[in-house]
Amino acid sequence: MAFEIGVLFALGALIGWGFGDFLIQRSVRKLGDWEPLLIITAFGAVALTPFVYGEIHSLVLASDYSFLVLLGASFVIFLTAIIDFEALRIGKIAVVEPVYSLEVPVSALLAFVVIGEVLEPLHTALVVTLMIGILMVSMRSRHFSRRVWLEKGAALAALAALFQGTTNFMVGIASRETSFLITNWFMSLFIALVCAFYIIMHKRTHKLVQHLNENKRLLVTVSIFDNIAWIFFAAALTLTPIAIAVGISESYIALAALLGIIVNKEKLLTHQKFGLLLALLGAVTLAIVY
């Protein structure tokens, strides 16, 4: 029963991230990277505080490595978020999202190295298919024999995916060491404090308040979707194997990319469309059979 509930949580993360990334792109293109990240994480920290208040004292005084695990996961996810937001700001979401499929092999590799999970031949073939699709959707040139120009945001998205694969694994470990709620609360608080420090040091607090007043609905909506997705994902990691939770939730790239094409009317070249289809099919199939 626990496994089935974990799968449902992973599906919830899929939906939350799909709509969340789509809304994040709108936010960062209007407001930049730091302000939306501050609002999203501050929202999560405040909303979760009543549910974890009783655990905070014991976490600080814990004699094990729980605090260090949470600190490490928070630092990695902060780097991931900044790179992710910038990739979404400058790139097409239909191009950026499939590149995030790199999270799957990165998470699988960490699972293999650290806890001994082994990819079967079918899984390996799907990962290779996914990589080919990512390469095609990221290239701008119509002729592969000529100089290759990468789409804006694709390189940053690839870097973000490498960090995200690591983050997925660390969030799983942190959630099992503590709880999925305390993990999300700690990460949100850490990132919110870093962002607040940056904005204060750059004397942008007045602009932050102004942007918040002008974009309340967008920022509140994206905060709800993104925080729910991370809570569901962390919960799934405590109930199912990390590789399965990542595989299922990774299918959010299909939803986000399709939203970019349908709603934003993003235009892709023929080979990019084929690459997008190949990448999405590889990710979704991997999510099903992994």
Describe this structure in words.
The chain is mainly alpha-helical. It contains 13 helices and no strands. The protein has helices at residues 2-31, 34-60, 66-90, 93-99, 103-115, 121-138, 154-177, 180-201, 205-214, 216-239, 242-249, 252-262, 270-289. Helix 4 (93-99) runs antiparallel to helix 12. The protein is globular.
In short:
This protein has helices at residues 2-31, 34-60, 66-90, 93-99, 103-115, 121-138, 154-177, 180-201, 205-214, 216-239, 242-249, 252-262, 270-289. The chain contains 13 helices and no strands.
Class from secondary-structure proportions:
mainly alpha
> In percent, how helical is the residue content?
over 70%
Would you list the SSEs in sequence order as H and E? HHHHHHHHHHHHH
The major pleated sheet works out as: none
Number of discrete helical segments: 13
Beta-strand share of residues: under 5%
Distance between the termini: 19 Å
Radius of gyration: 19 Å
Could you say which overall geometry the principal axes of the C-alpha atoms support? globular
The tally of strands reads 0
Overall pLDDT level: 77
Low-confidence stretches at least 5 residues in length (pLDDT < 50)? 142-149
